[in-house]
Amino acid sequence: KKRVFSGIQPTGNIHLGNYLGALRNWVNAQAEYDNIFCIVDLHAITLPIDPVELHTNTRKLAALYIACGLDTRYCKLFIQSHVREHAEMSWIMSCFTPMGWLNRMTQFKSKAAGNLDSVDTGLYCYPVLMACDVLLYQTHYVPVGDDQRQHMELTRDLAQRFNAIYKRPVFTVPEAQIREEGARIMSLTEPTKKMSKSDTDLNSRINLLDDPKTIKKKINRATTDSLRLVTFDPERPGITNLLTIYQVLTGESQQEIEAAFAGKGYGEFKAALIDRLVTTLEPIQKRYYELMNDLPTLEGILKQGADEVRPLAATTLNQVKEVVGLG
Ligand code: ATP
Ligand code: MG
């Protein structure tokens, strides 16, 4: 089986974008692959975060992985900082990463938001750590959302460059797996921006743990337009985003959806979307609260995951050290 690796940062509440762009695809394809899914807490400290919040977010995210359907029969689940090899490899790879390559990363520019002198260097080096996460496990496929396309290109470039320098296939060159639908879920309030955990506007996203009342409120407030036509239209990003969410959740085609809502208003469509969201999230939330009520079991799963992946990571790291001349 081919190796799959991916991760989510425990920076806040997991939202619909993370679910439709990443997690849901991991779950749907898990039986086909040899999967490793990580909670990337080392990435979460690239911007200031409260320690207690980071610790609880990490457990919550692990519980959500399982609640969404990740099954330990197919997947190894672990916390990034529990496997030291990630941090160690990251230093070595940063010595093989041209600054010009990192200067081109658009996520750094938008997250630094103009504070280039005061932002910590971890944010700048984030893509190197991400590359190491993937390369340590000789990964074939990395299922992610569209926003990670550039970081995945960098990961491939770093792997190829390293292999070329030492004239040995030390790293498997991984491929990003970005699905057509749901790869870029937009903010509900500013539909030209992607939905993000770190957006300060709480109404911009549906969290997987939102209750039905909150979902209803957020969808009803979501930005649309005055045309009142329930159709997919790039010129109208608000309604198109809501329709895309509906499309991924129902599995219906764009034509089928447009036909079903022809002549109907946004109110009627939003009611149908709210209904879908509530029925999708209800079972996930139920399992989530069960898991959170039994933290020792959850910690056990994460410990076992880390114990299982550590030797895999160590094998790659040792090879890297050997070819570089370290150790
Ligand atoms: P942050 O704002 O802290 O960066 P985030 O919402 O971007 O949080 P990440 O942990 O960075 O979430 O990303 C986890 C996964 O979710 C990645 O695979 C990413 O591509 C995917 N993802 C994030 N936002 C979206 C979105 N709006 N639509 C689809 N996929 C997304
Ligand atoms: Mg992100």
TrEMBL record:
Catalysed transformations (reactions) = tRNA(Trp) + L-tryptophan + ATP = L-tryptophyl-tRNA(Trp) + AMP + diphosphate + H(+)
Ranges spanned by the short sequence motif 'KMSKS' region, renumbered to the chain: 194-198
Instruction: Kindly state the positions of the motif 'HIGH' region in this protein.
Output: 10-18
Task: Tell me its EC number(s), please.
Answer: 6.1.1.2
Q: What does this protein do?
A: Catalyzes the attachment of tryptophan to tRNA(Trp).
Q: Which family does it belong to?
A: Belongs to the class-I aminoacyl-tRNA synthetase family.
The protein depicted here goes by the name: Tryptophan--tRNA ligase
Q: Which organism is it from?
A: Reticulibacter mediterranei
Taxonomic classification? Bacteria, Bacillati, Chloroflexota, Ktedonobacteria, Ktedonobacterales
Q: Which gene encodes it?
A: trpS
